[in-house]
Amino acid sequence: MKILLASLVCATSLLAHFQTVMTDQSVVEQKNPKVSIQYEFTHPFEQQSMNMQKPKEAGVFFEGKKTSLLSNLQSVEKNKMTTWKSEYTIKEPGVYQFYVDPMPYFEPAEDKFIRHQTKTIVDAFNSGEGWDKPIGLKAEIIPLSRPYSLYAGNLFSGKVLYKGKPVPNAEIEIEYYNTQGLKAPNDMYVTQVVKADNNGIFHVALPLDGWWGFAALIDDDEKIKHEGKSYPVELGAVLWLKTEKIH
Prior knowledge:
DUF4198; five-stranded antiparallel beta sheet; 54% strand; 247 residues; DUF4198 domain-containing protein; signal; disordered N terminus; Immunoglobulin-like
């Protein structure tokens, strides 16, 4: 029994961790300007949530300015775990980048802290401009393909930045937010992996409609002390986008 339990713990820890920021609409029209935002720390394909503390920072970036949404956050229980939500009403055309910088999560199985700086990008009132602008996170994915109004089957391209500079040969994990109960052939299929080129640029095809997460994992230059010991930090540049079917 002890061996079985240890195996189950190990298997769970090997699943990819993803911080999420997902909105109820990625293209906002004037008739429905209120956006609902969901924040969750999860294994997306397996739909296994983990407790998420109230984040260090959560906000929206618009026209070069960050606006905090921390005071708007409300906790939501999902599968007996804590997630968060907020709302934001859009008042003028443009591209809005919703982001979160969570409290670092200690993963004892990997002997490190995990901190995923995460964003998703929303267009309001058919603006179509500014979706490729960085918002100044320490780790960030910059879209090279428009990150909304995407069809299932599209090719997505992005660039990984760390401290404002491209990350050569960055490794990017890709995972589908699997609300449909789809089954992978085996565990190796759950998290897809690509590597960026020397300029930090990567390309990924998106075969299914729904939410897709991209996490470029970087060894941060800072460490965190925990119980008298310093631990490394896995800093993730995470981007979420949604694809749609053609009906």
